[in-house]
Amino acid sequence: MALLALSSLRAEDDLEFAVPDEGRITLGVFDGSGKLVRLLHRLAKEEDFRAGLNGLFASWDGKNDAGERVASGHYYVRGYLIGDGVRVSGERFLFNGWAEDPGFPGFNSIKDFSLLENGDVILLAGTEPSGNLLARFSPEKGFLWSRKTEPKIASLRIPRGLRSTDSALHPARGSVLTFLPPTLHFSPLLAANSSLAVVMTEGGIGVHSLDDGREKNWGARGPGVAPLALAANDSKMFVSFSGGLVENALPDLSQEIAKMFRPPYAFTLDADASTLIGASPDGVWMQAESLKPVPLPTAVKCVSLGTPGTFWFVGVENGAPFVGQASFAGETLRALRPADGDPKPEKIRASRTAEKFAVIESLPGLQRLRVMARGEDGGWTIEWERALRDSANFGFVDGKPVADAGGAAQDKALRLRLKENPLTGKRDFLTLRAESDASGSRLVSPDGLPLVEVSTRDDIHRVAIHRGDKPGTLRLLQGNGSFVEEFSISGLDDILPLDAGGIDFP
């Protein structure tokens, strides 16, 4: 490389440097110890510089990146020419099947969900580092809307003196509800009717429009006890506690409690216009014209009303969860059991008008939502599904991307050999590392000069790199706990060093 700037130059003098090929230019000022003090040009085009007889001109005003005048001394101006052969291509999203859908809002878990009659689902999802969002998902169109749920008030107020019940539905003598502080700890709950979604979190109760997710109301209820289950029909919502069941009108949550049932306490509920069904450790029960138990020969941990006269449930036999359908009389109509090694059903939501249901299934580190429908031949088929893996510790193991790299060492930097410099005839080496911040992710030189922009996402928390299969290539993973994205970067040997000489700063 021809050195066309001399150390006798001073700050604000023109620095002329030769450019061996076409491409973008990154140029920085370094002090005597090699520390970058000023980034002069970041992936600039050649037309951004003034051209001279022997190259391009750059200048420096003697200030650092903070706009402060630097100390007296000798400084160096150098950088890199990033050739047109460098290519960045996004390959795929990994470990989160929702991430490729249009409008993906970013979440790392599903805490609750509802199945709408048109096939859409409403998701109450968890986000990083903590928080909840509500979203409507269409399997044909992707995410139609999403809203953060940040309730500002406490949960339902329960009448003082309410007594809990035993398995025979009689009040338990001397047992009264214990009132907890306004800050309660419980898993967020979701219920939906034909037009509204009701969200219940530790902060309070929110009512949202299904059309656009807009908040219609927040219920200010004061301190209460932690809820076990939530259900809604087109006019009411039902909240189950360990001492009974609260019924409130929708969407106006400001009124007093309208009615109190005393069924066995429920850890799952579902409701339509005329029927309320629940499941508890005591079994399944229904509230229609009257409250009655539904005899089932299995333990049940989740129920959902189905087509007329039926309900779906997640049952447990010998510790193994399965999906079943039963009549209101307690007759088991069908049982669908997962294969060995498959995720196990946790929560189910069924259609009232079609033989269809959605189920959340899980294994350690894996969560899957699957929609199943009955075919004309009577068999059950998967309409669609999405899987979500815990990927906070993603990385490479044996050259392959994995959701959890464990303690496997990850490459911090990769050393590549560059192509021959036409000005010097040399083939230099370059070490690259990956970094991310609020402006995006990129590959940088060891001294911090940005060389290859990978993405402009502002939410990247972790980056991993691995050498590619061909010379001058590497693979990069980036994510934030909600998704992992894989990139292929090629042509990295088409990066050549530039030297604009030195400057004596008085």
Notes on the structure:
By secondary structure, the chain is mainly β. Among the domains are: 15-82, Immunoglobulin-like (Sandwich); 87-93 and 392-490, no CATH class; 97-153 and 184-257, YVTN repeat-like/Quinoprotein amine dehydrogenase (Methylamine Dehydrogenase, Chain H). The chain has no helices and 43 strands. Strand 9 and strand 10 form a beta hairpin.
What layout of secondary structure does this protein have?
Layout (H helix, E strand, L loop, with lengths): L14 E3 L5 E8 L5 E9 L5 E2 L4 E3 L14 E11 L3 E8 L14 E7 L5 E6 L5 E7 L3 E7 L14 E3 L5 E6 L12 E4 L3 E6 L2 E6 L5 E5 L9 E4 L3 E6 L2 E6 L9 E3 L6 E4 L4 E5 L2 E5 L3 E4 L4 E7 L4 E8 L2 E8 L4 E5 L7 E7 L5 E8 L2 E9 L5 E10 L5 E3 L2 E3 L11 E4 L11 E9 L2 E5 L5 E6 L6 E6 L6 E6 L4 E7 L4 E11 L1
Antiparallel strand pairs: 1-5, 2-3, 2-6, 4-5, 6-43, 7-42, 8-9, 9-10, 10-11, 12-13, 14-15, 15-16, 16-17, 18-19, 19-20, 20-21, 22-23, 23-24, 24-25, 26-27, 27-28, 28-29, 30-31, 31-32, 32-33, 34-35, 36-37, 37-38, 38-39, 40-41, 41-42
